[in-house]
Design a protein that fits this description.
about 25% strand, 9-stranded mixed β-sheet, alpha/beta, UDP-N-acetylmuramoyl-L-alanine:D-glutamate ligase
């Protein structure tokens, strides 16, 4: 019996830092009102390149193991060097890999992460083998666990989303979901959320789901509380996090002096840190504090699995506000 099984992608991250990278202010058609341009036909010099594993399924598994939980990852990797490297790393972390499937139909997922002085990053993502986990390939009989954690799913794995939620619900397995846009766009997503214990989204995703402007946070939570009877978590980047259990809205902001080296994996580290403490104690305030501290640790180092907190490790607690939902 596992404490938790994670589902999601397993990725080889290639992290590069160009010698000179300038963000250009652009027009309103650009999502962030700033773009980065590279000269076509020329070489772009980089001053540093590092290789780490990433992906929502394995990133979150790393936190759960570090927090002392018996953890397994269920996903698909390619039959290639990158896939074997991820498998070796998971074993070294003590994540159970018996539920991992290999395929020769696609290569292991890869991401090229372009750093911009720690302030932000651009990711070139190849969605490969992870998308090929069909429902017939999921080892349903081996999913013996107290919790499931579903990171963003895409491809055939997204098609299994409702089946996984129903499987957990029918067997009284608790389930935490950090959905991607592919899941949020499913016609039955709002029905599926009625069976979710912890729903984790960023502010843009919460706005997309509720069709309410991102700045109207109280209205967003009012709508989400109607949709999901469980705990709803909304991360807000540098502005912190808000959490609702339908009765109280908890809020916290990160310290201004936190060290930001690489934002890759920050969302995974918060979500898995939050769920770790919630699994352990059911205390939302303590879960917010652990999630925030785990995310701050991740931000302070390059690589999505570096800087994560270990069980019992001391950390500086943030102040958590409480207001009626």
């Amino acid at each position: 019996m596992f404490d938790i099984i994670t589902f999601g992608s397993a990725t080889q991250d290639i992290i590069v830092k160009p010698k000179k990278l300038t963000a250009l202010k652009y027009d309103k058609s650009s999502a962030n009102h700033a773009d980065v341009c590279f000269p076509i036909g020329s070489k772009v010099e980089i001053e540093d390149m590092q290789f780490y594993s990433g992906g929502g399924g394995t990133n979150t598994a790393a936190t759960f193991v570090a927090q002392g939980f018996k953890t397994a990852f269920c996903g698909t990797i390619g039959q290639d060097l990158a896939g074997q490297g991820i498998l070796n790393e998971l074993k070294a972390l003590r994540v159970d890999t018996k539920l991992v499937r290999k395929t020769d139909k696609k290569s292991t997922n890869h991401s090229i992460v372009i750093l911009n002085s720690g302030l932000d990053r651009t990711i070139l993502a190849y969605r490969g083998a992870a998308e090929l986990l069909d429902k017939k390939d999921i080892p349903w009989g081996k999913l013996k666990t107290k919790w499931l954690y579903l990171a963003p799913l895409s491809g055939l794995l997204c098609d299994s989303f409702e089946d996984l939620v129903n499987f957990a619900f029918e067997r009284k397995i608790k389930i935490a979901v950090n959905p991607g846009l592919a899941q949020l766009s499913l016609p039955r997503f709002k029905e599926i959320t009625k069976r979710i214990d912890v729903l984790i989204m960023n502010q843009e995703e919460a706005s997309f789901l509720t069709k309410i402007p991102a700045k109207n946070t109280k209205e967003i939570f009012s709508k989400i509380d109607e949709i999901c009877p469980g705990v709803a978590v909304m991360t807000r980047g540098g502005e912190g996090v808000m959490v609702s259990n339908g009765q109280t809205i908890y809020s916290a902001v990160p310290p201004e002096d936190r060290k930001v080296v690489d934002t890759t994996g920050a969302g995974d580290s918060f979500g898995s840190g939050f769920v770790s403490e919630y699994m352990r104690s059911g205390d939302i305030e303590a879960a917010v504090q652990l999630g925030m501290a785990n995310s701050i640790g991740c931000l302070s180092q390059i690589g999505a699995k570096n800087g994560l907190l270990k069980k019992g490790q001391e950390f500086t607690k943030v102040s958590v506000g409480k207001n009626p939902a």
